[in-house]
Specification:
This protein has 195 residues and is mainly beta. 11% of the residues lie in helices and 43% in strands. It has a domain of 125 residues. The chain has two helices and twelve strands. The longest helix has 17 residues.
């Protein structure tokens, strides 16, 4: 029991953000209800339909993996990520977010353009995405659950592309993080400078 950690989603009820949407790319991706996405192969599925496809590309110039998030309806890239920086669409000129994984304490920090800050706390089977709020501290905006594959439930008013970015970073972080962590490491928070 000493090195086991757990999350209870009852302690982290999702808070709607319709009054102040958390948008990564465009408001066309903001849902008015909670959305559940399931990672199947390279697709994120919602209500039996593919919402986003993740496609990995080897970027020889940067010697780094690059990910594109493709909307099946328009078959265009809605976002791409290089070296943990997320850009809008096919362009790499407008950074929209910076992803900062901290595998030792199993947290991921996402700093959005406009200085909104999110923190993903994770264990091997569950994670919670928290939005920094000046009045209430951190409030939950997404739940991640792992059974056979990962799924994410995103609060109303939160960009589904942001859920895909967080899920990809979560999978990578857990793949390379140490197997045993104490609860005190799990709960620590590292604050990074905003972009």
């Amino acid at each position: 029991m000493g090195n086991q950690t757990s999350l209870s989603f009852a302690e982290f009820p999702l808070a709607s953000q319709l009054h102040n949407p958390v948008v990564l790319i465009s408001d066309s991706f903001v849902s008015k209800t909670s959305t559940t996405l399931t990672y199947q192969g390279h697709d994120l599925i919602a209500r039996g339909k593919s919402e986003l496809t993740m496609r990995g590309v080897k970027d020889n110039a940067l010697s780094n993996r690059r990910l594109e998030y493709i909307d099946k309806r328009s078959n265009q890239a809605v976002a791409n990520m290089k070296a943990n920086v997320v850009f809008a669409g096919n362009s790499t000129e407008r950074p929209r977010a910076m992803v900062k994984p901290h595998p030792i304490n199993r947290t991921i920090e996402i700093v959005l353009a406009g200085h909104k800050r999110l923190l993903l706390r994770a264990n091997t089977t569950q994670a919670v995405l928290l939005l920094e709020n000046s009045i209430h501290g951190y409030i939950p905006v997404a739940h991640f659950t792992r059974n056979d594959s990962w799924s994410v439930t995103i609060a109303a008013g939160v960009d589904t592309t942001l859920g895909a970015v967080a899920m990809t970073s979560l999978i990578d972080m857990l793949r390379w993080s140490p197997p045993n962590l104490s609860p005190r490491h799990f709960c620590s928070v590292n604050r990074a400078a905003s972009i």
